[in-house]
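Example record used in the benchmark description.
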Amino acid sequence: MTTFTSTLPDEIIKQLNEMSGKLAIPKNKIIEKALKIYLDQLVRAEYIKSYSTALEDQDILTIAEEGMADYLKQLEDETM
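Model output (structure tokens):
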């Protein structure tokens, strides 16, 4: 595991200390979990942005519609 040193605003440190004491969880674990959640949200935001971009691309929409038509045909063939 790598050591990381940073500075944080006093108010955040105060909240971190309070929550760490209240929950009996080490501060580094709270920071680790919070950072993991934030990074996951950034990844989701990238996906949303890429889908929004694809929505505006007519070529991508055409490919998706063709793929969906093929998929529906496969479903119909399997249910017969």
